[in-house]
Amino acid sequence: MPQKIILPVLDGLSAAIFIIDGNRKITFVNKTARRNFDPDLVGLDFVQVIRNPDCLKAIEKIIKGRKSSQLEIGIQGTILTTYRVNISRLGAKSKPQDLENWRAIISLEDISPIREALTMRTDFVANVSHELRSPLTAISGFIETLKGTAKNDHEAREKFLGIMEEQSQRMVRLIDDLLSLSKVQASEHLLPKNSVDLVAIIKQTIATLSPLAAAEDVKINLEIADNIEAMVKGERDQLLQVFLNLMENAIKYGGDGNQVDVVLSAKAKAPGIAGPAFVVEIIDQGIGIPREHLPRLTERFYRVDTGRSRQKGGTGLGLAIVKHIVARHRGRLQIKNNDDRGASFSVFLPQ
Fold first, then answer.
1. Which H helix or E strand runs over 81?
2. Last residue of a domain, one of 131, 155, 186
3. For position 197, what pLDDT does the model report?
């Protein structure tokens, strides 16, 4: 195929492409290579661009006669980037002894997202296994005890059965949240089409959580801006889940005898949203969240205080579910520490 056809094709590839001669001098680079590495690469020794021993060894083997080679390398920049490298000799008749006319093509494909996804999947499976194993181990232990020493001990039996019920409910909550997360992620790319009333959703959330608030001795204070008609494009059940998760957390972690403020207002501008938005702020009066934890709060199974979270019935998935639902609605979730006390969770939804 003529060179005037091949080179534009290489320029259009998403992988970084280099062509080198037998002295490792770069004779061609495509647009991706120029963008990702440097615009002025032609004429440089390849080692000046990619300083990776394994990659250079593979090139030497190609120069000595091997037809092709594939490997993975990591290049440390601002962040570590993982590349799949393919090296092939150009032209079956090309002889390594003729170094000036000898050519090899090197492609570097960024596979960092694939590796990150694999790592996330591995971590996710490990976390789920751990979260399920702990209550299962407790239940199995109590079953053995009830079969043995506590078989005829009524008081111990009632106590152990109560604990077993708590642990089984913990597993049910975890499985329910896993199913919710999976469903939300599957529909995240689909924009909601129906119009829903935010005021009605918030009021229903408060009514649903009233028994919990009473049990925790927490007052829920609702503030709605005057003359506001908060209609948004959304899926009612998902938005209800967002506010249930956030308000339930505020009640549980806000401290007994305190107040949770729920504030609905309209904003002309909102972070990450083109145009006006409605914002729902849920503000608690608890001990707050250490600032170093704020960026990771929406990660799956991330907890500031693991023991306290489990004691309160948390699965570590609630905020991850919130994040994905808000993203589906093309909104934004903002988490802040209040200067005086507590934390605030703000949901911005486009009008």
1. strand 80-89
2. 186
3. 92
Sign of CA dihedral 322, 323, 326, 331: positive
Nearest to 237 by CA among 245, 229, 247: 245
Side by side, the strands of the sheet bearing 259-267 are 219-224, 259-267, 277-283, 343-350, 332-337
| pLDDT band at 54; cut points 50, 70, 90 | very high
**For residue 167, what pLDDT band results from cuts at 50, 70 and 90?**
confident
Chain-centroid distance of CA 268 in Å reads 29
How far, in Å, CA of 330 to CA of 187, rounded?
13
Three-state DSSP at 125 gives helix
Q: CATH code at 253?
A: 3.30.565.10
Same domain for 267 and 350, yes or no, is yes
Could you give the CA distance from residue 56 to residue 62 in angstroms, rounded to a whole number? Answer: 10
Residue 306 pLDDT grade (very low, low, confident, very high; cuts 50, 70, 90): low
CA distance 268 to 341: 28
Q: What is the pTM of this model?
A: 0.61
**Domain extent for 62:** 3-110
Cβ distance 31 to 11 under 8 Å? Answer: yes
Nearest-Å Rg of the Cα atoms of the chain is 29
Question: What is the total residue count of the chain?
Answer: 351
Q: Residue 67: is its pLDDT beyond 80?
A: yes
